Amino acid sequence: MSYKPEVQTDNSGKWYGNALRFETEAEALASAKDLERRWFAVRAVRASYSDDPVNYKLDLKTYVMEAIAA
User: N or C: which end of the chain has fewer CB within 10 A?
Assistant: First the structure.
């Protein structure tokens, strides 16, 4: 179980994500919001549940992200 960051970039209603999977919904949402700050075309952000294993950790105090070894 994990959470994945997703963004909408157009009016199609489709959500787009990447391979990042976090332990908490808060980490995934913070990652999506980071993309929103850096990308011009983001219209909406969310964190969604995923059955994939956790592969990243985001420290919500420092915003330092690190990969977790499989």
Answer: C
Rounded-to-integer distance, Cα 27 and Cα 13, Å: 23
E strand intervals along 1-70: 2-8, 16-17, 44-50, 56-58, 65-67
Residue with tokens 């990447």: 18
Q: What is the pTM of this model?
A: 0.92
* pLDDT of 69: 83
Q: Are 4 and 22 in contact (CB under 8 A)?
A: yes
pLDDT single digits (tens) 20-43: 999 999 999 999 999 999 988 999
The domain limits of the chain are 2-67
Give the containing element (helix H, strand E) for 47: strand 44-50
CB-count exposure of residue 47 (10 Å: 0-12, 13-18, 19+) = buried
